[in-house]
Amino acid sequence: MQAVGLVLRSFRNLADAALDLPEGGVALVGPNGHGKTNLLEALAYPVLFRSVRGAADREVGQFGGPGFQVAVTAADGLTVAATYYAPERRKRITIDGEDQPTVSAAIGRWLAVGFFPTDLALVQGGASERRRWLDRMLSLADPVYLDALLRYRAALAQRNAALRTGDLAAADAFNPALAQAGSVLARRRRVWAAAAVPLWQAEVAVLGEESPVALRYRGDDALDDADAWDERLHTSRPRDLARGQTHVGPHRDDVVLGLGGHTLRHYGSTGQQRTAAIALRLLELETLARARDVRPALLVDDVFAELDHDRQRRLATRLVSRPGQRIVTAPRSEEIPPELDLPRWDVQHGMIRQLLSAAA
Fold it and tell me: What is the CA radius of gyration of the chain?
């Protein structure tokens, strides 16, 4: 999947623009804080219609402005657009100019996977970081998963609200919905994890890590079966009621990453953890490509500066070996490995200017 056009209006600090993007990708070069990451954020926004940096929509538009607009046109002619109207706090989403009734109806029509320096949290952070990553990836890969996730979250929120009021009967009324949707999530996560292990191990090795690594989905196997939920929820009732929240279900599970027989989160070096995080994004790319039969665009934000020379070369070679569009950023042109021979665009004070050649 390739973006051939990008329209920006009042997005972050970027000047309004209608950009024609090269088929193979582009390298964005310029000082930190001038808009390179914002441009990647704009390309990623129409995937899930929210900021990949966790910002609220009112923070994505320019200060004091009316809102923002971003539209991506893919190589097949499909245009996915989002317009946020700040005074009304309203968002309009269109596909080829047609309004979409819900956000979920438009999710995943445009696909991009991003590497950002903050991705280290996928390894160093708590289970919620990896669950969020897993839910995002599998929702884009599988509409059945997305539907189950939305139903599960709704039932969980209602059950927890009832628990907080001490109404156990009302909480139990949501058990069937929780079990039906939750069992779908648990099964599909476990199936994904089993297939992902060799793929992730191969990506980590290609990036230069010599120690053996492991990936394991940690959750209650019994919850793959909706019929097993009644017993689990009944056993957990006292704790649920005492704390006002549900303690059974995939919202408490984790993807455990190992290194040399130990947890990568606690025992890996920063370099090993960063390598593992990059490999998770490559795994995400492969997961989506296999599920959707299309290669997502790849957004790489200033990742090379954090790697040693050998791992820079290995990552660049890996990116080049994969078909698809690559948009990368760096403060200086010479920080982009020579293997990534892409056109250069200069980003200064929110203005984007095409340089004459990759060597410029």
Answer: 22
What is the distance between the terminal CA atoms of the chain, rounded to a whole angstrom? 28
Buried b (16+ CB within 10 A) or exposed e, 37-47: bbbbbbbbbbb
Please choose, from the candidates 55, 92, 90, the residue with its C-alpha nearest in 3D space to the C-alpha of residue 70. 92
Domain extent listing, the chain: 1-111+294-360, 123-291
Cα–Cα distance, 41 to 350 (Å, whole number): 13
The proportion of the chain whose per-residue pLDDT surpasses 90, expressed as a percent, equals 85
CATH 3.40.50.720 is held by the domain 1-111+294-360 = no
Residue 336: CB atoms within 10 Å: 22
Q: Report the pLDDT averaged over residues 250-260.
A: 96
Q: Check residue 360 and give its pLDDT.
A: 37
What average pLDDT does the segment 228-236 reach? 96
CATH superfamily name and code, 123-291: RecF/RecN/SMC, N-terminal domain (1.20.1050.90)
